[in-house]
Amino acid sequence: MDDISVHLTSDLTSSERRLSPDWTLEYFKNRVEQITGIPPASQKIWIYQTADSSERTPINDSLNTQNTHLEDLKIHPGTRIHIESKDNDPELAELQRDLLNTSDKNELYKLDEKQYDQMPNTVKRWKQENKLGRYDPVLRAKKEHIIQEDKLRASEIHVGDRCKLTNSSIQRLGTVRYVGKVPEIDPERIWIGVELDDPFGKNDGCIKGGRYFTCKENHGSFVRPLVVKTGDFPPEELPFDEKSDDEL
Description:
This protein is α+β, with helices and mostly antiparallel strands and about 250 residues long. About 25% of the residues lie in helices and about 25% in strands. The protein has two domains: about 5-135, Phosphatidylinositol 3-kinase Catalytic Subunit, Chain A, domain 1 (Ubiquitin-like (UB roll), Roll), CATH 3.10.20; about 155-230, SH3 type barrels (Roll). Mean pLDDT is about 80; it is low at about 100-110 and about 240-248. Keywords: Chaperone. InterPro entries: CAP-Gly_dom_sf, CAP-Gly_domain, Ubiquitin-like_dom, Ubiquitin-like_domsf.
């Protein structure tokens, strides 16, 4: 079956793509991860029959992804496929942005922003007209509220504070090394850079070439202020019987 052209969008990306109706849903999800940065298990897929349609249909999560093909989902030329993330973890969002910034840029044709704004029938213009995404006043108000919450909590956190992160089932203790904006993640919000005691992080204090502090590899993490609890959290020590024979 011949390839077809569709509009593929997510909260971080929008582009026109060609795909084959013969693709299995499993193969499509893996390809989409390379474009959106959203892992297959975290993808929520919505189908809009046209790029400017406001009616959408979700793809059933219970479908067998190995046996279901895109042609079974009634995807045709001009369909808009929107990928959402089921997760709200800020570190996952950071990972998605990392993936998008390290992917092969040569496969995308990039227009000058002013030229793009003058074009009709673009995803951006569609979002503006329908007040979706960042053009949604309700969503914008919600983000402003989050920004103010972050600022208020960040004012109580200081570099050098011992802390515990509350956004994980695994106890993660560390020391605050940075408080401020990180444009590589989000230019508007305040982030807390933490040097973790154990290697549960994703970096060494550097994000996409921007260095904010220095620590061991996989000991650095950037998180929202609201998940940082400061206090008397001394580094955990190994029980006596777990120490090596030459430790006294």
